[in-house]
Amino acid sequence: MSQTQNLLQSLKKCLRARGLTYRDVAVALEISEPSVKRIFSEQTFSLQRLEDVCRFLDLSFYDLARMTRHDGEEEITQLTLQQERGLANDPLVLTYFYLLLTGRTPAKISKEFGLDAQQQTSMLVRLSKLKLVELLSNNNGRLLTGRRIDWRRDGPIRKLYQRQVQSAFMESKFDGGDEMFRFDTGELSAASVSVLTKKFEKLSQEFDEFAELDISTPAAKKKAYGLMLGFRPWTFWQILESTANDMGLNAERSQVY
Hints:
Blueprint: H1 3-17, H2 22-29, H3 33-42, H4 47-56, H5 61-67, E1 76-77, H6 81-88, H7 91-101, H8 106-113, H9 117-129, E2 133-136, E3 140-143, E4 148-149, H10 156-169, H11 190-213, H12 237-246, H13 253-256
Parallel strand pairs: 1-4
Antiparallel strand pairs: 2-3
């Protein structure tokens, strides 16, 4: 896929993420809807027209280039064991690193959380020593990782926080209008498991793509969300058996089914 195609794909994703259509673009640009469709399909954007569309979406050229993934590649980073240990040993630095991963600049973090210049410098220097941030002038820094971090399965971050995160996340009743919880069981073939696993991976990828698209969205128009995916061999009998044991019953499987 060419760079032009990648840019247009990002524009389309951004339109979908904001619930906008070609008709909305046409109204904003004061041209006909067929003209907008033709521009996208034939890839005949002039620089001025591209700037107009970006302005309508509240994007800069930099935002658009940043969210474009060349050739469909994803920026997924696995830190070294030393880097994970450094973050695990310093929760404040880990928090600061997380905020950078969400798209906040050092200046925005400083303003949002009331950090003074000395505290800001301290955070950036410590991340620089872990080779996670490149120090820039004016008390600024640039991430040296992708925004998606693949934490090590047996690494210090998961050991410290995974159980706590899972427990805190599942405390909700999931009954809000913007919440969802489903739990299904069934017997699947290996082929079905393979297909579903790929779908889960695709969903996770799309979640991250929308988060990337919405980095430039004003803070007042968005809020933080969590997506938890779990898939494993499991039978409902495990719960029934545990419940029966807790009640002092000796239930037979045949009676349960």
